[in-house]
Structures
1.
Amino acid sequence: MSFDRRKFIIGSIAGLASKGILADSCKFLLTPQQPEGPFYPTTSPLDTDADLTMVKGQQAKGQVVVVKGIIQDQFCRAVENAVVEVWQACHTGRYNHPSDTSRAKIDPHFQYYALMKTNSKGEYSYKTIIPGAYKASRYWTRPPHIHYKVSLRGYEELITQLYFKGNEFNQRDGILNGLSNEEKNKVIVEFKKDESGFLTGKFIVNIKKL
């Protein structure tokens, strides 16, 4: 009787996965928690669609980027209907929030916040601009970042932040540098031009199923 080693190995792995024995191999993919910060919207904005770059037909200032991503659980399975909230500063580094007392200008044509749900493959996407860096204190400048809140019944709520690869302020950020190198790799995203000419990045977020 012949012995097909490849089929045996594949079959064994599939069997272990179905029993949850290989679940631990994916746990390192959990996206690290990050602070919510003081600028989460106090009221629900009227406009919450997936294009933050335009308000009332007027284009926001700044470098337009597209974020595409997937929400998965700790076993790398797609999470359907997850609620994905994002909020950020405009190109000047100013949030549209009463607690932001910066002298930087508000951009009236930037949306600042969006709310989405993932599809059956756990996918989501939105268009935005690269937010400006801003002073968190006299000696600390926060790098451009986008806040995330991901939630769904049966899963642990995740609050995290997306950072832009190569930004000069990343190396000196106290929040980002509180993470391990492996965790940093989960939240720092590289943006490259796609076939349409947009700078596009992929942010895969892993949340914990309860």
2.
Amino acid sequence: METRIALYPGSFDPFTLGHLDIVQRLSPLYDEVVVAVLVNPAKHALLSPQERVRSIEESLSALPNVRVLCSDRPTVEVARAVRARVMVRGLRSVTDFEYEMTLAAGYRYMAPEIETLFLPARPEHGSISSSLVREIFALGGDVSMLAPEPVLAALARHTPKGD
């Protein structure tokens, strides 16, 4: 029997409670969930790839069938490398849906053997995004209700820019 592997890719800069919720909901559905921290050299990240991987691993330590990896390869290549048959994308809004549908069409063109699965955010996480967390953090605001504790610890090692 084939191992059911789902890939959950993203930049996760930083990993939020919404991301955590998606992985927690995926974990019982698949034999293995691979959280892929994708690095885009063109983007200026708040947390280093190593900080993101470490804080996500710590956030997900209670889920034995979840692993975290880091890659600068295209998403489809990562999915093939880990033998994922499903790529999971979280949706917060209609705007996310339109953007993600376009990505899914590209993925389907490049890798027809891999399905894209959309998982809607729970209402309490629908407004949380990594960019919102970064912006609030940069202004010196409290992000403790938006990210898991290991992520907050990683953020604490960075000085908010503020005014």
